[in-house]
Amino acid sequence: MRLNQYIAHHSKYSRREADKLILEGKVSIKHKVITDFAYQVQEGEKVYLNDKLLKTKEEYTIIVYHKPKGELVSKKDDRGRRVIFDSLPKRFAHFTPVGRLDFASEGLLLLSDNIKVARALMESNLERVYLLKLSGKIQENVFDAMESGLSLEDASAGAHSKSKITRMDFAPFVGYTCIKNTPKYSKIKVAITEGKNRELRRFFAHFGLEVLDLKRIAYGFVHLNNLPSQKVRFLERKEYNKLHAFLREIESQNPQNKPKETK
Fold first, then answer.
1. Residues with Cβ < 8 Å from 139, sequence gap 6 or more?
2. Could you give the CA distance from residue 116 to residue 122 in angstroms, rounded to a whole number?
3. How confident is the model at residue 263 (pLDDT cuts 50, 70, 90)?
4. Chain centroid offset of residue 27 CA
5. Which one, of 132, 127, 134, 116, lies nearest residue 58 by Cα?
6. Per-residue pLDDT for 261 more than 60?
7. pTM score
8. Helix, strand, coil shares, percent, the chain, to 5
9. Contact indicator for 55, 263 with CB cutoff of 8 Å
10. 255 falls in which pLDDT band (50, 70, 90)?
11. Which residues of 173-211 are buried (b: 16+ CB within 10 A; e: fewer)?
């Protein structure tokens, strides 16, 4: 991890403030002052700020990956298709994805090196925000279903051909914004709190609307913003603060879910 990023990750300082501290010669590693902004902190290295050790607050890391279309969220594929770990740097090979985005979808994907953290995020009711392009006009009955919820005995339309899931309940959407709505196609931003198998594709397919493009732009307190496709970033300090608050809330509900912290 880049030095200024490490400082921001493990202290109250922002990256810009960290750059100033580095420039002022207040950062050292192995008893040597580091003034190289591009210095990469290696695993196990101890960073000192004003001669005080920066203690890591968590024994886990979260990364944000901008998954492109045409990659599977999987370790490998028996059909030889490209998987996310073909694109991710090798040092993230042991990370666990938080949920999935199907082969034809793109956008924000969280991964963690701590399975409990990944599971807590995956099973949460944090908002997932998507941008969708649909093959036709969204009628009033579709908006009604988004607001009221929907139960389908046969939700196979929009599903993968090999999916064994048929019946599905769709909770009311947290919110939506219709960006464009024409007979040829429509664009809409939606927020939901679930992550069921091809949920949005199944929902809109029930109304005869094919999802032409699907892009996740936010997962809870983490946003994709301008992260380029196939690129990775670490969570920022403010995002980690919100993650810690989220995990504390989960822990208060079930103490067994608490991830281990560095002593």
1. 207
2. 10
3. very low
4. 31
5. 116
6. no
7. 0.75
8. 25, 25, 50
9. no
10. low
11. beebeeeeeeeebbbbbbebeebbebbbbbbbbbeebeb
**How is residue 186 written in tokens?**
């429509």
Q: Does the pLDDT of residue 10 top 90, yes or no?
A: no
Is 102 a known active-site residue?
yes
Q: Rounded CA gap, 121 and 226, in Å?
A: 22
Rounded Cα distance between 106 and 131, Å, is 10
CA angle in degrees (0–180, nearest 5) for 235-241-245? 125
Q: Which amino acid, 164?
A: K
* pLDDT range class, residue 34, cuts 50, 70, 90: very high
Report for 23-27, 36-40, 195-199: range of highest mean pLDDT: 23-27
CA-to-CA distance for 99 and 79, rounded, in angstroms? 21
Nearest of 80, 87, 93 to residue 65 by alpha carbon: 87
Q: E-strand spans in the chain?
A: 27-29, 32-33, 47-49, 52-53, 62-67, 96-97, 106-112, 128-134, 150-152, 168-170, 175-181, 186-192, 211-219, 222-223, 232-234
Q: How many CB atoms lie within 10 A of CB 230?
A: 15
- By DSSP bridging, strand 168-170 and strand 175-181 are unpaired
Segment 164-179 mean pLDDT: 93
Quote the pLDDT of residue 258: 54
How far is C-alpha 57 from the chain's CA centre?
21
Q: Which of 19, 36, 78, 102 is an active site residue?
A: 102
> Tokens standing for 79?
């059909």
The radius of gyration of the chain from alpha carbons, rounded to an integer in Å, stands at: 21
